[in-house]
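Lab notebook, bench 4. The sequencing result for the construct came back, and we need a structural model before the next group meeting so we can plan mutations. Quick request posted to the team channel:

Model the 3D structure of this chain.
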Amino acid sequence: MNNHAQTVPSIPQLEDLARFRFELRSFLSFSEAASEACGIAAQQYQLLQVIGSAPADKLASISYLAERMILRHNSTVELVDRAERAGLVERRNDATDLRRSVVFLTAHGWKMLEALVPLHLDELKRHGDEIIATLRALQHSQPEALREA
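Done. Here's the predicted structure in token form:
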């Protein structure tokens, strides 16, 4: 007799949600390994992406970086400090507000992006369909309560 099946409640979409999480974590795990193989931490690669993709009318201030990376201000400052020591970014005072720092990519930072972005795009070409399929399964499913109403 299988006691496990009798005691576990049925949670709608749990399997799809777990599969989606697995697909995302698989991509993030790839990203961590690829970044480290290039000699930088995954979070530094993410920082480079945010700075490199900032709109032309948006300066990459610490506040902007913190928002886009979903980090606290002090954590972002520490990340920028490490990236600056690694030669990936350069911090300058904002010409219009000297209290604010603006972060720019160095030539080395751009080279890291040029190396890592194609690797990530290739990985998405190989496994993106699974990520999309799991997301679509979740988007198109309805919770039990809605189906019964």
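The longest strand covers residues 89-93.
Will bring this to the meeting.
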